[in-house]
From TrEMBL, chains A, B:
Residues 92-183 form the Transcription regulator PadR C-terminal domain. InterPro entries: Tscrpt_reg_PadR_C, Tscrpt_reg_PadR_N, WH-like_DNA-bd_sf, WH_DNA-bd_sf. Residues 7-80 form the Transcription regulator PadR N-terminal domain. SUPFAM superfamilies: Winged helix' DNA-binding domain. It comes from the Bacteria. PANTHER family: TRANSCRIPTIONAL REGULATOR YQJI (PTHR43252), TRANSCRIPTIONAL REGULATORY PROTEIN (PTHR43252:SF4). This is PadR family transcriptional regulator. It comes from Streptomyces cellostaticus. Pfam families: PadR, Vir_act_alpha_C. The lineage of its organism: Bacteria, Bacillati, Actinomycetota, Actinomycetes, Kitasatosporales. Gene3D superfamilies: 6.10.140.190, Winged helix-like DNA-binding domain superfamily/Winged helix DNA-binding domain (1.10.10.10).
Amino acid sequence: MALEHAILVSLLEKPGSGYELARRFERSIGYFWTATHQQIYRVLKRMESDGWVDVRDVPQQGRPDKKEYSVADLGRAALSSWLHDPIEPESVRHDLAVKIRGAAFDDPTALIREVERHRLAHRDRLAHYLAGETRDFTGPAVSTAGAKAPLDAERELQHVVLRGGIAYERMMIEWLDDVLATLARFGPGR
Amino acid sequence: MALEHAILVSLLEKPGSGYELARRFERSIGYFWTATHQQIYRVLKRMESDGWVDVRDVPQQGRPDKKEYSVADLGRAALSSWLHDPIEPESVRHDLAVKIRGAAFDDPTALIREVERHRLAHRDRLAHYLAGETRDFTGPAVSTAGAKAPLDAERELQHVVLRGGIAYERMMIEWLDDVLATLARFGPGR
DNA sequence: TCCTTATATGCAACTCGTTGCATAGCAAGC
DNA sequence: GCTTGCTATGCAACGAGTTGCATATAAGGA
């Protein structure tokens, strides 16, 4: 399990509340690890009682107060230990692939609309990634302190992960085109 | 949840026992949906009591008897209904991507060995897929009955799913090379 | 004033998935 | 005779993830 670790990484990149984390899990880090707010609050509680994170009450005006979490030494150590622990290449869950194989026993052409929907979703996500890349990773590297940083690890590594997302979406779009061409070879009905 | 559906597809492709299904989930369908034997036996029980599958005791010689499952009408209907139900594009879980972003707060170069391990695993899987493609999808299309089938849906759809696996592995290998090049730009330690 | 929306946090129940363990038949080798 | 290994099925406990619901502050519009 690695939700704790995804949260640690996100909090190291920038401290924040459970609510803010939940929003980040809808974009950014969420492209590579999903979580709902309920899960995040529950895990944050556990991380707090384990001493992995520190909490600070932050009064706000115009909106409810929040609890801002930041990574404690124990959390940093836990992340480091996880990083040094080998993990197995991910176990996959591709509903769509199962559906495509299953379509052989139903009407294959009925899947076309579904595959097109997925293709659109991937096209949108690709556009979103590319926009983010242009926004955040073009122009000179500037560290958060404003000083020139020739090798800003945080930025470089975020960028390579984003490039992975871009490559994945491009691959998916090409493959879904292949799937559509294959499905189109079958006549309607069976 | 779709383990039921993955099992239905696999049983439609060929009836078999829980044990045999578990082995298929280590290859073939398992490349796109993972499951352990405990999970499979539990779900098969439920599917049986729901009338989705039929069971037949098959005595064997030289080994324990087995229960052979095959898809019942209710199961076929359930699969069909699932196929017509739109699903959301998958939620992703990429430990490695989280690790790479986390490495910015530790020693980035310490991840190199781990990334190389993953690269090897993907290279092996690619080789495995390519061998399977050569074995099963070259030469003339021949249906199970031995007759020429100009449009064998089952075979065509299995092939396009396999091509997806191949494209995925190729993309991953290229990306991991990119990751390795990025990590190499950081000196040892920090 | 009421309704909606956004911020912000949380509980409870349930399902799904993983891990560890248990059992049993039979073959092959030491 | 004993151990190892493969086939074959299963239980129990736990941990992770999902779904539905609940609560509270406050801004903005109908």
